[in-house]
Design a protein that fits this description.
The chain has about 200 residues and is of the alpha+beta class. It is about 30% helix and about 35% strand.
Length: about 200
């Protein structure tokens, strides 16, 4: 997956879903050209493993599952995001921490993501995720809820997602999102990843 698509994932996961963010209003209204936003985001995205590790360590310490690499990250204002891809490049781990005072409803965030995502190159394009399972979990010593979603792409391929919120190292809300095709979904890996968070 290209750096541009990774950048789009970060924008979708962080900017477009924030209803109160001025950048979102500008993007939705078309006032700011998408190309300029992509140029800005591309310039503020790193694929250097050491830089990504630094960004990630500001959110939480965790053990990356075997087979995941291709790290990328973005730190702007007080938002931080990091992501990793599986060897197949189909399964994706995304971790985001929001600024102080910003609290996201995960279901609303995913709904906004689906509504706003018009890029046909994005893995989320055309997928309507429905919550199919929820159960209590513990992440960073905090009680939370693990939500499992499922949906079909425009090509008919089934995708799954797992989301859980927690308080990151910065003291603010953070969200872990794992998504990928159902035929390579590994629920045990997701649960081990969550359990590794410190």
């Amino acid at each position: 997956m290209s750096k541009t698509v990774k950048t789009i994932l970060i924008i979708v996961g962080v900017l477009v879903v924030l209803c109160g963010c001025a950048t979102t209003a500008l993007l939705v209204s078309g006032t700011v050209a998408t190309g300029k936003v992509l140029q800005w985001a591309d310039a503020n995205t790193t694929e250097d493993p050491q830089e990504v590790a630094q960004i990630a360590s500001g959110i939480a310490d965790f053990d990356l599952p075997d087979g995941f690499a291709s790290p990328y990250g973005m730190h702007f204002a007080k938002f931080t995001s990091v992501g990793y891809f599986s060897q197949s490049r189909n399964t994706h781990i995304l971790l985001t921490q929001f600024p102080e005072g910003v609290h996201m409803d995960v279901e609303e965030m995913l709904r906004k993501t689906q509504e706003s995502n018009g890029d046909q190159q994005s893995p989320l394009y055309g997928i309507q995720m429905n919550n199919v399972e929820e159960h209590p979990t513990t992440i960073r010593g905090q009680e939370s809820t693990l939500s499992i979603g499922e949906g079909k792409s425009s090509e008919g391929e089934t995708f799954r997602s797992a989301t859980v919120t927690f308080q990151g190292k910065g003291g603010n809300q953070a969200i872990l999102l794992v998504s990928g095709p159902a035929d390579e979904w590994d629920q045990e890996m997701v649960e081990e990843l969550i359990a590794s968070f410190e």
